Amino acid sequence: MWHALRARRGRVTAADFIPPRPALASGYPSLGRALHASVRDILSLFPESGFDRRLIPFRTLARRVLVVNEPELIRQVFIGGHAQYGAKSQHFQQALVPVIGDSMFLNSGAVWATRREVMARMLHPSRTGQFHPLFTRGAEELAESWSGEVDVAPGFAAATALAVMRALFGPDEPPEAAARLARAFATYESSVLAVDFAHVIGLPRAISGWQRRAAHRAASEVRAICAERIAAAGDTPGGLFAELRAACAADGAPLLDATQLVNEVATLLLAGSETSANALTWAFYLVARHPPTLARLRQEHAQVLGGRTPEAEDLPALPFTRAVIQEAMRLFPPVPYLSRQAAEPGQVAHAAVGRGDTVMAITWLLHRKGELWDAPHAFRPERFLPDAPRKPPRFGYLPFSLGPRVCAGAAFAMAEMTVFLATLLQRLDVSVDPGFVPVPGARLTLRPQNGMRLKFTRRG
Fold first, then answer.
1. Of 359, 351, 365, which is closest to residue 398 (Cα–Cα)?
2. At the fourth CATH level, which superfamily is domain 2-458?
3. Average of per-residue pLDDT values in the chain
4. Burial class (CB in 10 A: 0-12, 13-18, 19+), 16
């Protein structure tokens, strides 16, 4: 079922590594098979031709889903059409409401704009340096704890969640709380129904959104941990949470009540850790499988860092380290799809869009589209270097979304991932069993379905 495929466009050399990916469908599935498959993994819905299609329409019993897979159409929908397509799709909302409620991530309109302004101030790129000690501490703690064969997926999830927790509440946040949060969300993602079947068949919104009992238990655990950390913070000044709690509406009233504070904290903790954790998980696998990349990383780290933990000022001098992370997010986008719901009837290219229809960008397809990328299935970090002859296509590379909803924490995440990759590789040698084949699965995020077991030995 699983196999490494040769890149279909661009010249593939003997030095290229083509990571494994799912065996693709022979054609587009029937409605029943599509619904069944999408519960488990949306990647299995698309045949090989899906990478090259410009528009991919799906018709359900009562709804239409339109996948846009071209940079210009993505620009039209997600930037030019923000007023029309500003709301997350109902499928996505129903999948995340049990965990993050009415948070900024799911909201739209004036409520979203007000909260987005607060988050943008809190996570502005100019403030990334103040979080740097949290990144280095987390990376050093992880390096000390890893030896032998390790499933890095939960380790990165806990470590990146802890970094966000410490940014929110202060440097004394306990690692155990972050590990519990990571486990609870992993359980939630494996249990949640990502497809709202009631919505698909046209039932009223009031009776849609059913989820399994296991998903509700895991969601309750996530929210309980967030409430626990808020209570433990009390009125202690400092940390981003103090700014969030102090935010006021235009009339001077508190912007967020107690429930909304839990919602936004849950969003920050999950959105702030999931992208970094998933990208680092795949990056370490790719590095372990491709010795030339590992050798070039070692050279860059030796020249710039000489064995020491990177300082904030060092990060611009680590372009290849950054490029490895960017290429990992191209091949295995942490957020495998972006989905929006049409507020009114409209049209995308030649396709009519009805009110309530869903318009999506599948980053898994877009990031491997042959017209946009040379050897699209090959692992080539150098394509993201500043002197690369062909630049990543604008609106064709979306690891942090785009437009007004671009991730406010993108600079935080990139700095964090760069520090983790540089610190861990200076402390540890990494390898992978040749028989181990990770299985990417796309639900809410793109995770290895059976974990990511790598081998570590301490460097002398």
1. 365
2. Cytochrome P450 (1.10.630.10)
3. 89
4. middle
